[in-house]
Amino acid sequence: MSLIFQKFFLIAMTGVVALPDTSGIALPENIFSWWQLLKTGAVLALVLALIWATLWAFKRVTGNKFANPSGLKVIGGIALGTRRSIQLVMIAEKLYVLGLTDSNISLIDKIDDPDEIAKILPSLSKASSGDLPFAKILQRIKNTNPTEKAE
User: What is the pTM (predicted TM-score) of this model?
Assistant: First the structure.
């Protein structure tokens, strides 16, 4: 019992644990093993394949519901100042021009005429390539005569 107490006291006071004598044990000259590396790589590939298969199955089961909720698509926007912007949003084949501030969202215009949307969307593809700025697109929408919509 006193031998156990002495070893415990030695460890507690010095923090050093006496290592066992390994002089009689033959250690391998080359610790690196290609076989161990191959096994580790195979296990890693298996784990990554399982993660991918799980995500693929989850996507198939849920029907990718989280990718684009409710058919909402932000077409573009322009900053008007600090925390103020105008955004063009497409929801269910209708375009909405929204004014956004830090505390409010206002509907500026709703475009539901398919012919007018067909005129605006090609302009938006030019705007995304940098040929036509979003401000000019909004100017075109603003200049559209409201009486033409009624006809």
Answer: 0.43
